[in-house]
Amino acid sequence: MRGAGNAYLILIIALMIIAAFMFMGGNFPAQVPPPHGAAVTIAPPNKSEEQKNLQLYTFGYITAAPPQPTQPYGPCLPFDDNGVKVAPTCHCIDASVVCKGGKAFDDQGNALTGAIGHPPLPVSNLCGSHLAPTDGRFCVAKPVIYLYPQKPTNVTVKVETSGKIVVSDPLYPQDGWNNVLADPSGTLLYQGKQYSELFYESEVGEFQKPKKGILIQTKQLSEKLNSILDQLGLVGHEKQEFLDFWVPKLQALHAPYIFFSILDKSEKEKLDRVMISPTPDTNIAFIAYFKPITDPSRYDSSLILPPKPERVGFVSVEWGGSLDK
Question: Can you give the pTM of this predicted structure?
Answer without folding.
Answer: 0.60
